[in-house]
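Subject: Amidohydrolase-related domain-containing protein structure
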Amino acid sequence: MTSTILYTHAIIITVNEKREIYQDGSILVTENIIKDIGVSSKLLAKYPNVQVHDLSNHIIIPGLISTHMHCVQSLFRGTADDCDLITWMCDRIWVMQGNILPEEAYAGARLSIAEMLLGGTTTFLESLWAERYGFDQLVKAVEESGIRGCLGKVVMDVNPNQPAFRNKMHKGLVEGGESLESAIKMWEQFDGAAEGRVKVWFGARTPGGVSTAFLTRVCAEAKARDIHITMHCLEEEMDHEVFREFDMTPMEYCDSIGLLSKNTVLIHMCWVGGDDISRLKRTETNIAHCPASNMKLASGFCPVPQLLKEGVNVGIGCDGAPCNNMLDLFQEMRLAALIHKGNTRDPKVVSAEEVLEMGTIKGAKALGLDGEGGIGSLEIGKKADFVGIELKKAHQIPNYDPVATVVYATSAGDVDLVIIDGKVVVEKGILKTMDEAKVMEEGIIAGRAVIKRSGLEKNIVPKWPLIKE
């Protein structure tokens, strides 16, 4: 029997082509598709016999889309705070990730996904799922939770001339050229799984740490099979040293190996500039902006105002829990709207409307999911992925401009309802597809086990004296 529900009496921010907002709007959902959207009085009269779900005093937005994520890292939240990037990565995160077992990776993925769902993130891009984690474990977590996942399987070799700090990568994370063949097998086996909610990507390691010949091969294989690629790039100013060795600008190099395209998401990009921005626009390459991570690790400022002005597509991401420490896209949107104002001393740059686009329709475009039958906006024919925010807390009131309320006065804890593919995954703030308490308990157990196996028990402690007895 076909399921049809009319969600009524909400303020609906459609993010459609006209950027229309319905003051008292309704959405008709049949199975997993939006069949109609409009003013509540008209839709209630038009569909008198359908099931009604009253969303009075709610703002409805398209499901939020995180264009950069490390699912396994939620096990390590709070383990590397206030560190420089090299210490953070080489002495803590790589060590722990190199000691993870598949069942622990599964626990980390479930913890990340639970947090994302409860906070209104309906789609995410995992950037570097390692061979040792077990790719099937990540697919399983996506399938059972109801979320959408673009899953980047690590592809890498070892460049003998890589920067010295990359030689400190834990041996448990080092993969050879066979990682590409493994990723292709994962794509053949799992792309389109979970009723189409799983997409398999290549998660490429950064230039300098990987040989040019290998990256060129990765890009060729991706183009031949229409597989998307995500890669960290220009996160730190010192990354420019790598590209100087190639005697090319960073984006000239990336273009020369076939990386730049509409099927690529480059992460961070704090140190891109000049003609390289025009090259990004010309090749339709996408950027994942991660403001909290960039601030916490003191990486720098992604030039979002310039990128947007040039017409480059910019999505937004949380990155991993150890460099954030929350997977809250509302926080990311707020930060993205604030930090560039302060950095440029211009209160008009990167508006609330622009960052909401980054968290929805531009994120969908970055993942290749914005077209007909896709996601990122609330329109007839698109997938029923949306989030309900109930206006019941003092920090949200009064609500004169719903976009400003969403961006500047809303957090993950304000999410009341999450619909993905037409199915309710969060209702009244409660996760329906997983046992939240069990997910948290398993995450705690897994995190402690990995830290112990990594030999970091004495290092990961409070900086101030801890009194136990």
